[in-house]
Each structure stands twice: as structure tokens, then as C-alpha cells.
Amino acid sequence: MTLSIERPSLEQLAALLLERAGLKITPDGYYGLRLALQARMPALGITDSAEYVGRLKQRAGEQELRSLIPLVTVGKTEFFRDTRQFLAFEKNVLPQVMERGRLEGRQTRLWSAGCATGEEPYSLAMVALERGETPATADVWATDLNPAATESAARAFFPARRLVGVSEERIARFFKEVEGGYELVQPVRDLIRFEGHNLAAPMWTQVQAKSLDVIFCRNVIIYFDQPTIVGVMERFYESLRPGGWMFLGYSESLFKISTRFEMVEVGGTFAYQRPLQPNRRAPAPVTTVVRPSAPPPPQRSPTDVESVLRNLKRQAAIVPAPPRPSAPPQPLLRPRPPPRKTPVERLAEVVEAIEKGDFPKALRTVRALADEEPDDLAARLTLGNVHALMGNLDEAREAYQYALSREALCVEARLYTALAEMQGGQLEDAKLELTRALFLEPTLAVGHYLLGQVNERRGDNDGALRAYRNAISQRKQPKHDLIGHFPDLPRSNEAIAQAAQYRLAALSER
Ligand SMILES: C[S@@+](CC[C@H](N)C(=O)[O-])C[C@H]1O[C@@H](n2cnc3c(N)ncnc32)[C@H](O)[C@@H]1O
Description:
The chain is α/β, with parallel strands linked by helices. It has four domains: 7-74, Chemotaxis Receptor Methyltransferase Cher, domain 1, CATH 1.10.155; 83-318, Rossmann fold; 341-408, Tetratricopeptide repeat domain (Serine Threonine Protein Phosphatase 5, Tetratricopeptide repeat, Alpha Horseshoe), CATH 1.25.40.10; 409-510, Tetratricopeptide repeat domain (Serine Threonine Protein Phosphatase 5, Tetratricopeptide repeat, Alpha Horseshoe), CATH 1.25.40. It has helices at residues 7-21, 30-44, 49-57, 61-72, 83-103, 119-130, 147-155, 168-174, 186-190, 226-239, 305-314, 343-356, 359-372, 377-389, 393-406, 411-423, 427-440, 445-458, 461-473, 493-509; strands at residues 108-113, 138-144, 157-158, 175-178, 181-184, 192-196, 212-217, 240-248, 262-266, 269-273, 287-290, 316-318. A nine-stranded mixed sheet has the order 6-2-1-7-8-10-9-11-12. The protein has a three-stranded antiparallel sheet with strand order 3-5-4. It is globular and about 75 Å long.
């Protein structure tokens, strides 16, 4: 099917996405927009972009817009995104899984799930090549829902501006300059297979049980609702070999999702590991620390894979956190320094300070955390919230904007911005932000409730009544756990429905 995608349609589409979802797409991002259209237009049997945009503008176009939006953010990826995770992968995880593959006489298999335009799997392949791996020893499987993204990735061509994050040394070794940009050299390309794959499908026919050593699935599950994430994690668990590793995006976690994985601190970051033995009871995820500087494991028989893994595990010190029922305590090789606080623990301190009303302490702690962990969405949003609570509305807006620049579809950033605008009396802006949040997540009860409040303050009683009724009708929807902390916000859908009932009653008495 030949598609015609014209510049005016891209401009109209960018305007529509800004209006409805608050997504700012500059002409620099039209490339991503074009890729998204290449995926969606054939799905609707449309060949002309003007017709597609016309369809979106109709009332029934809302559903299509929701299908388009995740694809539009496809450009949000970069080479070696999150340096700390890549260092942990390079120094700790890859050597371990390569050794295991070698001992078992097979390829080591890595999966970049939701690979977008290829920056992530190419980064994995570069690290593997630096270790001297070849297609005989390592395989990188790179998949995405968006066929236009994987097609673009397979071309292995990147304009110079997309090489941010790649060292001069790596550019010299792995890229060759071509007209308009750079192309990856053949040895990097030879390690990777690009394919289409829908992670949200209930069964993965392309993936065998216990066949993978490492999964990178970063900044993808943000698009899924909770039941989908639970299903995806179950399938990831089944596809990993026991002892295999999984990396999620910085602001993503398995909290309240899965207790089957162990959460392991590796080289100053966190990864999830499928335990060698399944957890008998379902404990909270166990936290262990892998120390990169630990001495090498003792000599072993070259074929005893279990003992290699046990020795590698011996380099791990179990942090006192929830003890694992089946694992006896591991001997420590050296006196253990006090464990570094995890971002989650540091954020818990911030929440405690907020709840005590100690905003200066909350601000100090959360600012340091957000500076050190620029990808930590919860820290960034909470930073904005602390600023808002202290009346620093400009700083609050700046923090939310930053969060949106990392995650364009961050519903919480919209919601908290609306709260800040309400605080500053900017009711039209608050309404716009809430409309965008609700466009992205129509079942967000707290969003409907706040919209009711904004409408009341704007003197729009009908709008307020509608919004409160919508809030009440979300009562049976699964609860959305908001990223970031804002005190006194009703969190359960039941509490929100009750608050909305009171407002409805008060409004009808007027
Ligand atoms: C923000 S990009 C993340 C790219 C890369 N993993 C990273 O962290 O830089 C998210 C990708 O997830 C893909 N995606 C969204 N839903 C998906 C699904 N159901 N199955 C597979 N990929 C999906 C999108 O097409 C997009 O390319």
C-alpha cells in the first residue's frame, strides 16, 4: 500500500495532539509522527494523510487518537539511555550471562522489548561487541509494536543529532559517516534481529519458555494498564531462564505487580532477576546487592552451571530487608558498608517530611534525589509538589514540564500542574490540564473530581455536576496509583466518589 503523507497533515496532526493530549511536537519530531502514521494508516485502510487527519477530527476519532498517541512518542529513546543501567549491564550482568551461555555451549540471548527506532538494542550490541562477542555467542532480539519503528531501526541510519550519548570512541568504532548522518557498521547489525511483536497480546507465540538471558523493557509498560502489566510480567518471567535478568525503565517498578522476581542492586542501579529456584511462598521482592568490586569466584568445574551461578551469587550480600524463606544467609566476603539508600527509600523520607509539614527538609532531600536521578519520575513530580506546597509555583511548573519532557504521556504531570494552576487561581489553565489528563486516562477518578472543583470555581455548575457524576461512575474502576506524592489527595476511588457525592448534594441545594 503506497502512502501519501504530506507536510500540512503533519502540522494539523501536531496541532491536534497539542490540543487534546498536550503533546508538543516540533518540526524536529515530524519524523516520529510520520512513522506513527505509517503504522496507523494501513490499519484503517487509509492511504492519504489528509483523510486520516479528517477522521481523527470526527467525534469517533477519539479512539483512534488513543491508538496513535503511544506510537507518536516512539522517538523518545536514545543510545545508552540511562548510563547507570548500561554500566551495570556491561560490568555485572553481561559477563555473568555470557559465561553461563559459554558453559552451556549456546548463544546468550538478549531481548530489547519495545525497542522503538533501535537505539537500545544497538547499544546492547555495541557493548557485546566490545567484549568480543559474535553472532555465534550472542543474539539481540529487538521487537516493537510499531512496524514503522522496527523498519526504521533495521535501516541502521541515524542523523548526527541522534548520536547524543555515544562516546567519540564508539562513534569511531561502530559508525560510518554517510550522507546526512551515520550508519552502524555491519558487525553491530549482524548481532540484531528486528521483528514486530505486541507485548500486550495475551500469548507470545514467538517466545519460548526459559529461552532468554536478559530482557530490556524500558519505558514501555507506562502505556499499559495494571492488568496488562501483570500479564506482561508473567510472560517475561516465563521467558527468562532461571537466574536471568530484566531491566525496566527508571520510573517503572514491580511494586504491587509481581513478587516472583528478586530486585537486585547492581552497580548502583536496580534490576530484576528470576530466582534460580522459584520463591515457595510469595514474599515481597527480595533486595540483594551485587558488588562489582568483589573478588572473582573460586575455581569451578567448567560444566557446572549451577555452581557458577551460586558463586556469582556469593558476591551478593543480602540486605536485611525481607528475608527470603528458601535461601540460607550467604557468607559475606568483607565487612559490609552501610547499605546505600535506594531512591525508593529516599523518596519515602521525603514523603515522611511532607507529612510532618517539614517542607524545607522535604525539598532538600527530593531536590538532591531528582538531581542525581534525572530519570526518576516519582522524584521529579514530588519535587514539583513540594514546590507547589511551598507556594513556588514557577518552580513547580518547571518540574512538571521536565517530567513531561522525559515522559510525554505522564498523566500525573498534567494532574499536578492542574493543582498548581488551581492554587494560583489560573482556572482555565487548570481545566485544560485536567482535560488532557482525562483524555489520556478517561477513568482517572481524581481527575474528574478536580475538574468538578475547577468548574465550580469557574461558575460552570453544569460542568461541575457532569464532572462529579463522572468521578462517581469510576467507583468500580481499578485504582490508579499516582506516581509522586501529594498530601491529602483522596486516593481510593471510593473516597473520591464519596467526596464527589457531597459536592453534588451541596450543588443541588443551591
Ligand atoms: C518510549 S519508547 C521506549 C524505547 C526504549 N525501550 C527506550 O527506553 O529508550 C516505547 C516503545 O514502546 C512501544 N510499544 C508501545 N506499546 C507496545 C506494545 N504493546 N508492544 C510492543 N511495543 C510497544 C512503542 O511503539 C515505542 O516504540
